[in-house]
Each structure stands twice: as structure tokens, then as C-alpha cells.
Amino acid sequence: MAMKVDMSALETNFSIPCLDDGDGMHLSADSPDVPSMVLPTCADFDGFQAATKDMVKNKRGTTTLAFIFDKGVIVAADSRASMGGYISSQTVRKIIEINPYMLGTMAGGAADCQFWHRNLGNKCRLHELSNKRRISIAGASKLLANILYSYRGMGLSIGTMIAGFDEKGPGLYYVDSEGARLVGNRFSVGSGSLYAYGILDEGYRFNMSVEEAAELARRAIYGATFRDAASGGCVSVYHVGPDGWKKLSGDDVGELHYHYYPVQKTPVEQEMTDAPSTSA
Amino acid sequence: MARFDPYENNGGTCVAVAGADYCVVAADTRLSVGYSILSRDHSKIAQLADKCVLASSGFQGDIKALQKNLAAKELIYEHNHNKKMSCPAMAQLLSNTLYYKRFFPYYAFNVLGGLDSEGKGCVFTYDAVGSYERTGYSAQGTGSTLMMPVLDNQLKSPSPLLLPARVSSSSLEFELFNPLMVVFLTPLSESEAVDLVKDVFASATERDIYTGDRLEIVVINSSGTQREYIELRKD
């Protein structure tokens, strides 16, 4: 007997008209995982999305990075959120703790990342309860990637890395709102990622101590905040090992600058003395 | 060619400041459209639960709908759980409510203020589609870019993301149930915080055409909610 393949994960949900069942939660019975969202009733959907994007100027802009080395995964991020040219916050948590052994990074739209990471955390917990074992990093990233694929073209802006430690060892996946899901050893995401890659690629070795790896990550994020206007605030560095994640450090980049480049006292050649005061 | 244009900006500014055992939420009462003032007496503040107050600026039509939506959900919560919603719970509900309209956003810039379950002040600040963060103080609206630098100057404390955590000698700090979430509250007393809010609104009124007329200040503390009105420049 032929088995009917379950394609529900690949269905697009946004075209389902919103059914308000009274408590406004908009969770339809067909796909309980994915909320069905209200859509504007206009002919030009894309034009409307473009116009509202300019109008509401959502928080975005960032530098995040993650890499695998012999002792696990290092994850680091800045903490600035900008709305257009205005810095709306310098204390944003861009490294999201999905569960005690998995981290997600936030780049792109702040609301999109926060909401879908929370949704992913719920799904991971449900998986644990249904299957009596933790979900793998590959599985968690696939759950997220499938959801984002179903919203492809709608204007979500998410560039995230799912990093963690499971039975297969350290895992790192890059997932974005275009539907991409890439496995890799080294990623940097965000407006400052190119600057971070320059430092990260140069200093990376597979065999490093945890402190060396953390310092490399910190230096790379610092470098990105130095050159990218949309990145700044504090650098947070996390390490994910076999026992789960641990936050290693949080440093203000303004202070880090003077730590890396202390003020040099310039040698004085000739001291100026006060001019002799003229007596009246 | 007629474009679908369901939004307008009614202007105004909202501020909230959290203290050790109080929270101050304030907003002006001017409602404008373009260069016209439609009302000098329109409140932007809604009380959602006994220790939780929402102040929103933006499109007042969407804000009215959002406030009604949240009040209804709060009532359902009360019926289901036999208690009123706490401020942190309402904060997440507001975030989800805003995000469910991600593709047709509420044009509302919100600040939620109140007391958390331990009685300490809390302020949550949002963008239009629901990204939120707990902070010690925040301003949203047309005058926010004028007010935030002044509030930063007076109230800013070491970032909660610093590790090892840094405490400035004058600020108060505490850990939420998750030890990684250290939030700083202003050490100012309630009356000092109210004075600061009045000063900051007086300054913004000078330079923002959409802010003025009257200031509504709501203070939430252990004895309940008090409301105060201060006149601002009407020009």
C-alpha cells in the first residue's frame, strides 16, 4: 500500500483567511504550529509591505557570529538596535537561549527573530515531551527553516544561526528568511558581518583554547562595531560545550576600544610657558 | 491612482520610568492630524490591569483597537486563571498581539509600565510589530528622539549585558528568576522621577509640534494608581 507523504510542513499558510474563533489567537486546527496571520485587503500586497516597512522602521541592524572549534561552539553578538538612523536600544539580547544546550542568534528584524525563536523554543520543548529525548540541532534548524520557507516572499527579515551541542557533537546551522539552511563551521550574519569575517577568518584555527576562541570572537565583533554604524553596544560571548551553554563575557565596545588601543601619551617637545604678564 | 492608505500619525509622546517600588507612565494629551490639532484632551494611556498601564502613540484608531483587544484578552485570562494578569505576562501578550498583525501592523508605538509580581517597577518598550525589551525607562512617539538623550543622561546605568555585571554606586539592581537578566531601576524617589518626567515633557514640547497641551501622569505603586495632570504649552 502506498503511503501518503506528509507534506504539511511545506504548505504555505499565509493564504489561509484568518478565522477569528473568539479568543483572537488565530491558531487554526489544520496547522496548530503556525499562526495564521491577518493580511491587508488590498490589491498591491508588495507595495503595501514596502510602504509600511518605511513607515514603521522596525528595529534591525547587527553583527553576530558563531564558529565550531575543538572544544565546542563559540557564539558572539553585539547589542545595538537601530530604527532608521536612530539607535532605539543599546541593550538588545541578540543571543537567544532556546534551551540549556542550544542558542539562536538574532539578525535582521528584531520582532521577527524574537517571535520565531520563541516559537522554535516551544516546538523544541514539545518535541522533547513527545519523543522523550532532546531535539538535535539539525532537527531544530530544520523546523525553523521550514516555517520561514512557508513565509518566503512576505517580507520577513531573519538571518539566524542555530548553535548547540547534541549527540553528534557541536552543531551550527545558518537559517534565513529566504529559506536557506546551511550547515557550516564558521558564520557571521548582519550588516557588520563582512568586517567580522575579516578578523574571524584570519585568526581562526580548529585547535584553540576556550579563552583564545572567545577573544577571537570578541575581537571580531569589536572590529565590526568599529566600522559598521548599525552595530555597537556590548559584545556578548557564549560558549556551548557538552554540558550546555555558558555566557563567558559581556563588554562595552567603547571601553574595549581603549583596552585594545590604550591612549598613548604623546612626547612633548617643547612646553609652552605662560606669557609674561604685562603690568598695567 | 488610489492607493490603500489606512494609516495616519496622530502624534504625541509617551514616557515610562521604573523605580524600586513604583512606576511612572506619562503621555501628552494632544491629538493631531497633519498640521491641525483635533483635540487637546485625548488620553493615550489605558489601564489594562490593576498594576499594568499601557501608553501608546501613533495612529489612535489602531491604538483604540489594540487597547480593546488587550482588555478583552485580559478579561478572558482573569476568567481562566482567577487572577489579574501581571505586567510581565501582559508584556508578552502585547508582543504576540502586535506580531500577529505582522503583515498589517498596528501603527502603535507602545510603552508598558507597571509593577512586576515582586512589586518592583517594570517598563517594557516595543516597536510597531512586537519586538520588546524590559528596560528601566523609555520614551516612544514623535518627541521620543528629543527625550531619550535627556533620560539617558539622567537615568542611564551600566548595561545589563555586561559580565561580570557592573553596578554603578547609585543605581539599584536585582536579578529576575533567570540570573542572566539583571535589570537596573532608577534610584530616584517617586517625586524626583515625576519631576524629571515633567521637565522632559516641558523640553520636548518646546521643540516638537505634536507634543503639548496637557501632560497626564500616572503613578503606579503599592497603594494603587494615582493620576495627575500638568498644563503644557498649547502652541
Automatic annotation (TrEMBL), chain A:
One Pfam family, short name: Proteasome
Annotated TM spans: none
CDD domains hit by this protein: proteasome_beta_type_5
Alphabetically ordered keywords of this record: Cytoplasm, Hydrolase, Nucleus, Protease, Proteasome, Threonine protease, Zymogen
Protease in keyword set: yes
Main location: cytoplasm
Catalytic activity as recorded in UniProt: Cleavage of peptide bonds with very broad specificity
Active site: T62 (nucleophile)
Domain of life according to the entry: Eukaryota
GO CC annotation: cytoplasm; nucleus; proteasome core complex
UniProt keyword annotation of Transcription present: no
Alphabetical list of PANTHER family matching this protein: METALLOPROTEASE TLDD, PROTEASOME SUBUNIT BETA
Function comment: The proteasome is a multicatalytic proteinase complex which is characterized by its ability to cleave peptides with Arg, Phe, Tyr, Leu, and Glu adjacent to the leaving group at neutral or slightly basic pH. The proteasome has an ATP-dependent proteolytic activity.
Subunit and interaction comment: The 26S proteasome consists of a 20S proteasome core and two 19S regulatory subunits. The 20S proteasome core is composed of 28 subunits that are arranged in four stacked rings, resulting in a barrel-shaped structure. The two end rings are each formed by seven alpha subunits, and the two central rings are each formed by seven beta subunits. The catalytic chamber with the active sites is on the inside of the barrel. Component of the proteasome complex.
Protein name: Proteasome subunit beta
Species this protein is from: Digitaria exilis
Lineage of the species this protein comes from: Eukaryota, Viridiplantae, Streptophyta, Embryophyta, Tracheophyta
From TrEMBL, chain B:
InterPro entries, per database record: Ntn_hydrolases_N, Proteasome_bsu_CS, Proteasome_sua/b, Proteasome_suB-type
Superkingdom assignment: Eukaryota
A GO BP annotation: proteolysis involved in protein catabolic process
GO cellular component: cytoplasm; nucleus; proteasome core complex
Keyword Disulfide bond: no
Keywords for this protein: Cytoplasm, Nucleus, Proteasome
Compartments, record wording: Cytoplasm; Nucleus
Family: Belongs to the peptidase T1B family.
Record's function text: Component of the proteasome, a multicatalytic proteinase complex which is characterized by its ability to cleave peptides with Arg, Phe, Tyr, Leu, and Glu adjacent to the leaving group at neutral or slightly basic pH. The proteasome has an ATP-dependent proteolytic activity.
Assembly behavior: Component of the proteasome complex.
Protein name according to UniProt: Proteasome subunit beta
Source organism of this protein record: Digitaria exilis
Source organism phylogeny: Eukaryota, Viridiplantae, Streptophyta, Embryophyta, Tracheophyta
